[in-house]
Amino acid sequence: MKVCYFTATGNCLYVAKRIGGELKSIPKRMKQDRIARSDDAVGIVCPVYCGELPGMVRAFLEKASI
């Protein structure tokens, strides 16, 4: 399982580590031209701001081919 995470304070990284699997940082992945994820399961761990996903996570989901 691959777990893509975005963390500002480290809390989401802690949760991603507890879930297990191969950890992938969303900010580092956004620097690539093409984002492709394939696995039996792909998880997204991120904070929620005012009921919305952070802008970078939203952009990641639009750019990624999962």
List the SSEs and their pairings:
Elements: E1 2-5, H1 11-19, E2 22-25, H2 26-30, E3 35-36, E4 42-45, H3 55-63, E5 64-65
Parallel strand pairs: 1-2, 1-4, 3-5
Number of helices: 3
Count of DSSP strands: 5
**C-alpha geometry:** globular
Average the pLDDT over all residues and give the rounded result.
Answer: 91
- Total separate domains: 1
Question: Could you characterize what this model shows?
Answer:
Helix content is 35%, strand content 24%. By secondary structure, the chain is of the alpha/beta class. It has one domain. The strands form 2 sheets. Strands 2-1-4 form a 3-stranded parallel β-sheet. Strands 3-5 form a two-stranded parallel sheet. Strand 1, helix 1 (11-19) and strand 2 (22-25) form a beta-alpha-beta unit. It is globular and about 25 Å long.
Briefly characterize the structure.
The chain has 66 residues and is an alpha/beta fold. It has helices at 11-19, 26-30, 55-63, and strands spanning 2-5, 22-25, 35-36, 42-45, 64-65.
Structural key phrases:
35% helix; 3 helices; alpha/beta; two-stranded parallel ribbon; 66 residues; globular
